[in-house]
Specification:
Blueprint lengths: L4 H30 E5 L14 E5 L10 E4 L10 E8 L3 E5 L4 E4 L2 E2 L19 E3 L4 E5 L17 E2 L3 E10 L5 E2 L2
Antiparallel strand pairs: 1-2, 2-11, 3-4, 3-11, 4-9, 5-6, 5-8, 6-7, 9-10, 11-12
């Protein structure tokens, strides 16, 4: 006996609904546990990242390393929501900032920072010039040093690793900027 069209349509709709639900659950699990999209807010990471770019942030099994671009969430002063910065040093390392020469040294080795926008000028709120990063924390700075509100501000200071949402690994949108973040 041939299946009636209404029953066949109901079965097909049920299969499509099951497929849709599985896809949604897979996306939710992916975004919660593995990676998530995050929008850049502001120009503190120029020239590496631009305002309103959409990044992919890897969360699962991430261990911060110097040079990584990370997204963290720690409210301080008037800053709320996720912020994007570069890890300069990790727990146990000592950061020294010399505004006269425009250099940053970690454990007395001056960093080669070809990713920064322009030479750094000290702002009044950037009072941290030397800091040994506590274990379980990171010292972060923006690539656009002259406008970045980062670990040089004592209100943020060294950031506990628990505040890090993950590593920014790629720009997803706009498409002309699509690619890995370095």
């Amino acid at each position: 006996m041939e299946e009636r069209p209404a029953i066949r349509a109901a079965r097909e709709a049920h299969i499509w609904l099951q497929t849709f639900v599985v896809a949604i659950v897979a996306l939710v699990l992916l975004f919660v546990f593995v990676a998530r999209p995050v929008m850049v807010d502001g120009d503190s990471m120029l020239p590496t990242l631009r305002d309103r770019e959409l990044m992919l942030v890897r969360q699962a099994g991430y261990d911060p390393q110097p040079g990584d671009v990370v997204v963290l969430r720690k409210d301080f002063e008037n800053v709320t929501g996720p912020i994007v910065k570069r890890v300069i040093a990790v727990g146990g390392q000592t950061v020294e900032i010399d505004y006269a020469t425009g250099t940053v040294a970690v454990d007395r080795t001056v960093l080669t920072e070809d990713y920064i926008l322009e030479p750094m000028v000290q702002r009044s709120w950037q009072s941290v010039t030397t800091l040994t990063v506590p274990e379980g924390c990171v010292f972060v700075m923006g690539d656009n040093r002259n406008i970045s509100n980062d670990s040089r501000n004592p209100a943020l200071g060294a950031v506990e690793e628990a505040y890090i949402l993950g590593q920014a690994v790629a720009v997803l949108f706009p498409f002309q900027n699509f690619g890995a973040i370095s």
